[in-house]
Amino acid sequence: MPLKKKVLITGASRGIGRSILEAFSDENSFLIGTATSKVGLDTIQNFLSENKIEGKALILDLGKEESINNFFTTLKDNDLYPDVLINNAGITRDNIFLRMKDEEWSEVLDIHLNSQFKIIKNLIRPMLKKKYGRIVNLSSAAAAIGNKGQANYVAAKSGIEAMSKTLAREFGLKNITINCVAPGFIETDMTKTLEENYKEEIASQIPLQRFGRPEEVADLIKFLTSSEADYITGQTIHINGGLFM
């Protein structure tokens, strides 16, 4: 394991991604956070600067091939290939199946599944040379139980889990672990828009009677990249308060 790890977190400006960035800030690590907008970029860079954390904020729009290629070039030119890769960035384009447009289906599959294929394929090569790497891909409880109006999202997350298992088998001999974390209902900007009575109804179905906190997800992800989790690979770890068991 490198003395000073480089940790790359996609979608690090808010929500779970921001909590992941904060969780790794107490380590001796160089943090690389991505965002799709200048506002998000500044948010990450300000956090790093204000807390005197070594790191860099980079633009990465997973929906644009040019942005992905420029991102790879920046990593190569600045020797920023990560030891730890956390694929967190994503979108939703919800619609019931019969009304779902082709572009709604394709965009979610491209940004979640296809872009992860490209990112992992490019960034795993330096890990192979070092014989060390930790990859955590964000999935969702929806991949296990389905969710009305999210056929695209569920298909993408299920694909990520299946891909992760296969890659764990392919790269285990090189000391690279690949796992998924599947959150349930978490307190983020997305869930804040839900009506209060609907949130209460959902919480009543969760044994712990509440939504999860982003930092709880971040702590689990951090654990999976630590030496304590060196023997864990090819797994999907659920964190959902007992929403399903």
Verbal overview:
The structure is a single chain. The chain is of the alpha/beta class and about 240 residues long. The protein has a single domain, classed as NAD(P)-binding Rossmann-like Domain (Rossmann fold), CATH 3.40.50.720. About 45% of the residues lie in helices and about 15% in strands. It has helices at about 15-25, 40-50, 65-75, 100-130, 140-145, 150-170, 190, 195-205, 215-225; strands at about 5-10, 30-35, 55-60, 85, 135-140, 175-185, 235-240. Strands 3-2-1-4-5-6-7 form a 7-stranded parallel β-sheet, sandwiched between helices.
pLDDT averaged residue by residue? 96
Total beta-strand segments:
7
> So, the CATH homologous superfamily?
NAD(P)-binding Rossmann-like Domain
Determine the strand fraction and express it as a percent band: 15-25%
Number of domains: 1
| Helix content bin | 40-55%
- Write the element-wise H/E pattern from the N-terminal end onward: EHEHEHEHEHHEHHHE
Radius of gyration, in Å, reads: 17 Å
Structural class: alpha/beta
| CATH class group | Alpha Beta
Sequence stretches where pLDDT stays below 50 over 5 or more residues: none
